[in-house]
């Protein structure tokens, strides 16, 4: 009986330790090396994100949650852009490029929009399949938070302000 209790206790301590590590680390890992092909044909790499706090949003024109959250993403971009914040919307590979271009133009998206025609960018960023999937990247190029589904924008703004204040 004593060994059984010890084993259960050790398992709980190990589980708590892993949980604390994940919680305290906050998932900070380097953003994957990627090349984003923007609607104008230009290219941007993950290295280009360094020095700014960046929201990277994987979305699709056929995703109702993506379309619904876009005004909030626009407002967030407009609120923080002058302070060193950037936004990059990455359209999923199955989204017809003409739909993406039409959406970006008709909604007057004020930030960069990339086409992921091959799916390589989504794969590099953790094999993204669900939209919207959003990543917050700090000035050092580390992913500090990710969301599947629409984020709580009040909490997101608090995080952005904290990250912008970091040196």
Primary descriptors:
167 residues; alpha+beta; Glutaredoxin; eight-stranded mixed β-sheet; 41% helix
Give the strand content: 15-25%
- Count of DSSP-assigned helices: 5
Weakly predicted, low-confidence segments? 4-26
Report the top-level CATH class: Alpha Beta
| Helix/strand order, N-terminal first | HEEEEHEHEHEEH
Q: C-alpha Rg, in Å?
A: 19 Å
CATH superfamily: Glutaredoxin
Give me the side-by-side strand order of the main sheet: 1-8-7-4-5-6-2-3
DSSP, total strands = 8
* Second-tier CATH architecture: 3-Layer(aba) Sandwich
Rounded average pLDDT: 88
Content-based structural category: alpha+beta
Tell me, briefly, the overall form.
globular
Q: The biggest beta sheet, please?
A: 8 strands, mixed
What separation lies between the terminal Cα atoms?
Answer: 54 Å
Task: Give a written overview of the molecule.
The chain is α+β, with helices and mostly antiparallel strands and 167 residues long. The chain has one domain: Glutaredoxin. The protein is built from five helices and eight strands. It has an eight-stranded mixed beta sheet. About 14% of the residues have low confidence.
């Amino acid at each position: 009986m004593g060994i059984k209790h010890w084993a259960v206790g050790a398992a709980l301590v190990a589980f708590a330790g892993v949980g604390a590590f994940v919680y305290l680390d906050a998932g900070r890992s380097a953003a994957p090396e990627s090349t984003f092909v923007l609607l104008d044909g230009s290219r941007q790499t993950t290295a280009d994100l360094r020095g700014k706090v960046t929201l990277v949003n994987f979305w699709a024109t056929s995703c109702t949650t993506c379309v619904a959250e876009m005004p909030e993403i626009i407002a967030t971009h407009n609120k923080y852009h002058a302070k060193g914040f950037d936004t990059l919307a990455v359209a999923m590979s199955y989204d017809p490029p003409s739909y993406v271009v039409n959406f970006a133009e008709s909604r007057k998206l004020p930030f960069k929009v990339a086409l992921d025609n091959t799916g390589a960018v989504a794969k590099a960023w953790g094999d993204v399949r669900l939209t919207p999937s959003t990543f917050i990247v700090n000035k050092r190029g580390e992913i500090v938070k990710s969301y599947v589904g629409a984020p709580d924008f009040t909490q997101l703004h608090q995080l952005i302000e904290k990250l912008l204040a970091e040196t």
